[in-house]
Amino acid sequence: MSTAPRTARGNRTRAKLLEAAESVFASVGYHEASIVKITESAGVGLGTFYLYFDGKQAIFDEVVEDLNRRVRHAMTDAARNAPNRMEAERAGFRAFFRFTAQHPALYRIIRQAEFVSPGALRLHYTRIVNGYIEGLKTAQASGEVREMDPTVAAWALMGIGELIGMRWVLWDAEGAPPVEGARPEVPEEVFEEMMQFIERGLAPDSAAKTTPPQEGTLP
């Protein structure tokens, strides 16, 4: 459980604790992290920690939620003014990869959540997917993407972004383990190949329906 601050100073202190916790969890892992390490990194007294969080699990869950909120905002903000769904996909994926390059802790902490806090993990992915589903439904209604199950499509698209980002943002080279610090963004040629795959998968199938059968084929 976490407690919302009542003052601007309290908000700043809580934000410092979250920032420190993100760094500590990403660098040493949940089990090696401690409240002492977090408070020392934040420059905050140990007793102050408990004004805002019940313990290590509480601040871990809050870090997951905070990362989720920030990455969703980055993607939504980037795609907001896109003229169509395909351009929204491009803008959203670019924003996601840019965020993960700047905040590689997102991957490391979400991976830990699978074992440390499965509920927080599920909430993280579900919040992203729910917004994605609504966007796909709207695009289907306007004929911008083909008819499909938007829930399946949303999970598939999120999986593409997750693994492309892991390979080309988080890792230095194929098979290499994650390293510390900000990472490079996805190479342009990789991004374009990914987008071609996505665009073909989402493209409306009206053209195929209106193409007359060739001679010798069944109608």
TrEMBL record:
The keyword Transcription applies. Residues 11-71 form the HTH tetR-type domain. The keyword DNA-binding applies. Residues 34-53 bind DNA. Keywords: DNA-binding, Transcription, Transcription regulation. It comes from the Bacteria. This is TetR/AcrR family transcriptional regulator. The lineage of its organism: Bacteria, Bacillati, Actinomycetota, Actinomycetes, Micrococcales.
